[in-house]
Each structure stands twice: as structure tokens, then as C-alpha cells.
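--- STAGE predict ---
source: upstream dedup step, 1 unique chain passed
mode: sequence only
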Amino acid sequence: FWLYLGEGLVLPLASALVMALTAFALNMSYGYFVESRSKRELAHLFGTYVPPELVDEMVKDPDSYSMKATSKELTVMFCDMRGFTKMSEKMEPTQLQALLNGVFSRLTDLIRANRGTIDKYMGDCVMAFWGAPVETPEHARLAVKTALEMATTVRKINEEHRAKGIPEIGVGVGLNTGPMCVGDMGSDIRRSYTVIGDAVNLGSRLEGLSKVYGVDIVVSESTRKLVPEFGWQELDRVRVKGKEQSVGIYWPMAPVDRLEKAQNDELKAWATFLKAYRAQDWDQCDLMMLNLQRMNAKKYLYELYSERVASMRLLPFDPEWDGATNFETK
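--- STAGE serialize ---
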């Protein structure tokens, strides 16, 4: 302006303004496309593992998430479908495939609806975990809730199978909470977002124990402590293969506010039985077992412990016994 008044000079302002606006537009476009690409890459990386709702949360701040391995407290689930081996002997492969995929889809929907991350499918088993990649403080509660919903869904599936003349299936779920290494792991050829560690291995062992105790869900003590709003029946203290320390295992009966008086009475009687069992007071065990079997005559857990008491009664008192059951197989 002063050059114009004093010297009569006119600068080409139009071209300068165009250049400035072009630079601004390019900068904004670059930032937009880089951000969009980052979000697309994040959605591609995690889209097959986590529910769409969690991906939507993640793309709001993509820089906070990566495949880099880290150690976190998570809850892991192993869910094994039972009965498909027998079905495979009688059904065509395509029929079995359609049936298995249908069951998997319904159970997977429950995992995703409860903010779970699908880890992998292994034959007729699905593995999932809660708490990563998105922080989920209530990971243990959501995992237990999912397991109970799975058990309910399998019962509904069996009703459909009976109506169609198809053999019924069973389900065994193991849940454990603890520190796990989570991240993108594998080879140069194939990798996956997964969890590893002792806590993961224990979750797998617990799934296998569901058959031993005649229940559909087995939950570790570490998970139970984080979910006090459920009524729990202690199944045992176990020492699994490769571990020196025993862990408590539990079965979730129902949310505390839905427990009936009869169920509460049964839990109290069972707690008294376990106290006598671990004290090796076999006469008291027999007395309490009579009461328990009157309360729930069809419960396999009580049949199992009746047989244990009968066999252990023949042994001398062992002051070194800690009340735990040892399992030497995986």
C-alpha cells in the first residue's frame, strides 16, 4: 500500500493470493487424505477381529492403536462345541460345514455384541478375549455375560435340532483373567492379532475341565473376583499340568439379584460341604451330600464328589493335602 502511494508500484496480488489459497487447499487435502488412509488402514487391520462399534471408536484416534505387542490384563475365553465329531460320521461334509458355520455365527455375534475380540477359530473351538485393542475396564464382566448368553443360545439351538431330528450339541467354556501379551504375531507369511501367556494357557485348561465337572462354564478365581454381581458355585481347587500353585474354579449360576432362595440355600450347603471335604471330615461330607442331592438330585457335580468321598475315605488322613485336585493331562 505504501509502495503504491509513494512510488506508484502495483504488485501482482492476485497471483500471490491464488498461490496462498492453493497451498492451503493442498495442505488441507493432504491432511484429509493421510488421515482417511490412516483410518482405512486401521479398519482393515482390526475389522476382522473386533466389532464395528469398536472400530468406529478406534478410527476417532487411530494413532492410539497399533499391532505392536504389549502386556495387559485381559480376559480370555475358549469355547468348544461338542458333538460335532459324532455328527461328522453321519453327515455330509457340506451339511456339517453349514451347521458348524451357523453355530459359530450365532456365538460370534454374542462375542461382538459384548465388545469382545475374536482371536481365532480352531476346528470346533472359538477363542476370544476382552480388553484389547480398545481399553475395556469391565472386560471380565462382559466375558462372563457372554459365556452365559452362549450357554442359553446353545440350549435354543438344541431345541431347533430336536425339532429337525438333528443331534444335539454341547458347549464348554473356559474363562481366565490375567496379564497377557497381546499384539500382531506370526510369521512373515501369516500373522494375526492374538494373545499369549500363562494366563491364556490356563483359560484353555479350564475349558477342558468343564467336562470333568459336568458344567458348561468354568471360570478362574481371578475372573470371579472381578465380577461380584454374579452368584458363584465353587467347583474345586485344581492344579493343572505344568503349574505348582492351585487355583480356584467356579461356575456362574446367575446374577445375584436373580438367584432364588433355593439356589442360595444350595450354595450355603455346598460351601459347608467343601469345608468338610478339605478338612477330610468324610462323615460330615456324607451328611451334607444327602442334603445337596435332595436339593438337586440331577447335578453331576454332586455325583462326582460322592464318588471322591467314597474313595478318599479308604485312605489315611493326609496332613499335607491342601484340598486341591491335580490334573496331569492338558
